[in-house]
Amino acid sequence: MNKARTNPFNKTAMHGALIIYTLIALFPVFVILINSFKTRKAIFREPLAMPDSESFSMIGYQTVMKQGDFFLYFQNSMIVTVASLFFVLLFGAMAAFALAEYRFRGNLWMGLYLALGIMIPIRIGTVAILEMMVATGLVNTLWALILVYTAQGLPLAVFILSEFMRQVSEDLKNAGRVDGLSEYTIFFRLVLPLVRPAMATVAVFNMIPIWNDLWFPLILAPAEETKTLTLGSQVFIGQFVTDWNAVLSALSMAILPVLVLYVIFSRQLIRGITSGAVK
Amino acid sequence: MQTRRIRWHIGVFLAPAVIVYTAVMIFPLFNTLRLALYSKVEQERIFVGLENFRTLFFDPIWAEQFWNALGNNFWFFIIHMLVQNPIGIALAAILSHPRLRFAALYRSAIFIPTILSFVIVGFAWKLILSPIWGIAPGMLDAVGLKFLFAPWLGKEEYALTTLALISVWQFVGIPMMLIYAALLSIPEEILEAGEIDGITGASAFWKIKLPLILPSIGIISILTFVGNFNAFDLIYAAQGALAGPDFSTDILGTFMYRTFFGFQLQLGDPHMGSAIAGAMFAIILVGVCIYLFGIQTRMRRYQL
């Protein structure tokens, strides 16, 4: 690199801008987290101070534990997210393989048909989805959510995965065929392991919107036993709106799992976005 | 294939995805559009043609709400385009600078709000901006600007803009990442060729990099458009289904929810809800078509 593009003044200004924006991005999260560990008095007297021995209190968390069933909500969110991701990846990879591997009549149309859902949000069809779930008795079950999120995730999954599957070596698959492997074995044993990085990208892309969704849990599964963490915290906070300790603790408990997931998967996520998977 | 035998495995591979996608996404989408043409009269579903849409667009009570929500939605979108995308591009331009220290750290930190749910974001900002808690007025006071403070989420004239800015805060990470990726893919030789011609620093950004990342900016714009016109969660989490104060933050998503599901004294009406969904579908379709046929095909693409 030559000098023309690096001078010290510019560097300071760049770091300054980034630090300011990073503070703006993290400040609200930070304020919520520190205040969730304080007594009610300290929350109002010195909202920006760190909790110390005098102002430290877990009263908010105790209320949350006693009043809300956060473990159940967490478990529901977990089941819905994991199951939806499993189906998106399995069904998406199978369809992507069919589109990428075989030439058949209607291949192009099938691809376009499946890609339609990338741009059109599934929420538009909510009225009919609810009617269908009521008719099939799936309302207030986690299956309703899993089905909806699977359908929602498939278009982009098929699109991204078929791009990657086209790059899998033809020779490898043909060698498998010569050895007498069935098409299914070729898919599951040879191709799937090779597109694992792309599968991880698809999983990470889908994970956050599914975990955070409020719309479908609110409409399809608002019952106490099927509340997801997002809906559960929304309802809990709505009821305890004047109990600031409880509200702050509930918010912190909702932030925590996502932050943990992010720390685990952030490299995958960022690599996925920057490798041009969504171009 | 010379032999015309049926290759069953293609069907087996395609079937699960096609069935789930068709049954849960495409079919309900069209069914919703169909339901918009019906109405319920005395417990019976009758075909009324475009009557629901006429009510929605012209009936005084409905039309006022609909145009209000639509106008608010456009304002919501405009703020995103004017604030979120330029900030995202600026951050990406700085981050993509070669040999910038801690770039990965900044990138990960700035992306954190994007992974939080609307419920968390909505309430966290509601608390911070609340005059009762006093974090926002306290901080403005510290820099001598206390007179600027107002209960932003509670005032009709500011509430929508405030919510749009909160949403910008949350999602700035997405344009940042996509533009960052686009900037990284610009080959070094092009920038060096520019340097030889004396184009460096800021003018290199405006004259070389910006034209090259225009396609990515186009994609971001359409993603923003679709996302904004189907937004709901943040407004619902922060202001409730009534999108207060006095419907000043009502957008199409909250309007559809209220209409279809009912709220307080208002009874839910799936058919009017479907009509609103139909209008949303039309708006999104028009936006996507403008992008696909009007912008994307005319944009000059440079072979890198």
Q: Summary?
A:
The complex is a heterodimer of chains A (279) and B (304). With 279 residues, chain A is mainly α. Chain A is 75% helix and 0% strand.
Task: Provide structural commentary.
- The complex is a heterodimer of chains A (279) and B (304).
- Chain A is an all-alpha fold and 279 residues long.
- Among the domains of chain A are: 3-61, no CATH class; 85-208, MetI-like fold (Orthogonal Bundle).
- Chain A contains 13 helices and no strands.
- Chain A has helices spanning 8-35, 40-45, 59-67, 70-101, 107-119, 126-135, 142-165, 170-178, 183-194, 196-212, 215-220, 229-239, 244-274.
- In chain A, helix 3 (59-67) crosses helix 13 (244-274), helix 5 (107-119) packs across helix 7 (142-165) and helix 10 runs antiparallel to helix 13 (244-274).
- With 304 residues, chain B is mainly alpha-helical.
- Chain B has a domain at 65-118 and 166-296: MetI-like (MetI-like fold).
- Helices cover 70% and strands 3% of the residues of chain B.
- The chains are: A mainly alpha (279), B mainly alpha (304).
- Chains A and B meet through helix 1, helix 4, helix 5, helix 6 and helix 7 of A and helix 1, helix 3, helix 4, helix 5 and helix 8 of B.
